[in-house]
Structure formats: C-alpha cells, structure tokens
Design brief:
- There is one protein chain.
- By secondary structure, the chain is of the alpha+beta class.
- The chain has a domain at about 10-35.
- The chain is built from one helix and four strands, in the order ββββα.
- A two-stranded antiparallel ribbon has the order 1-2. It has a two-stranded antiparallel ribbon with strand order 3-4.
- The chain is globular, with a radius of gyration of 13 Å.
- Zinc ion binds next to loops.
Length: about 60
C-alpha cells in the first residue's frame, strides 16, 4: 500500500498550469536547488525569462 499517490510523476507546469510527467518531459530547469518541469520548450523559455523580468499576468498560449 505504498503507492498511494497515483500522480507520482506528475508535476505542474508553473507557466501554463498543465500537468507534466517529470519522468518523461525533457524540459526541466533547475533554479536555486529546485527543479521545475515544463510541457514545452516555449514554457521553459517563458519561465526562465520570467526570472529576469517582472512577472506578467498573461502566460497562456504556450501549448
Ligand atoms: Zn506549459
């Protein structure tokens, strides 16, 4: 009964909010010791760009 979490590999794309399997996605980014996972290269680039400029409200249209 150890496998309680069905969505074990699932994490949330911080850019678009989409569910991403961290074992499958090739788009990850490590910042300050924390790893973020993304559904697409576009989302990753938006996220990295966000660290360099003020956050923007609109982040959709990536997928
Ligand atoms: Zn995304």
């Amino acid at each position: 009964m150890l496998n309680i979490f069905k969505n074990e590999g699932k994490v949330k794309d911080p850019v678009c909010g989409m569910s991403v399997d961290k074992n499958k996605t090739q788009f990850s980014y490590i910042n300050k010791g924390k790893t973020f996972y993304f559904c697409s290269k576009n989302c990753k680039e938006i996220f990295i760009g966000d660290n360099k400029k003020p956050r923007q409200e609109k982040k959709s249209g990536c997928c």
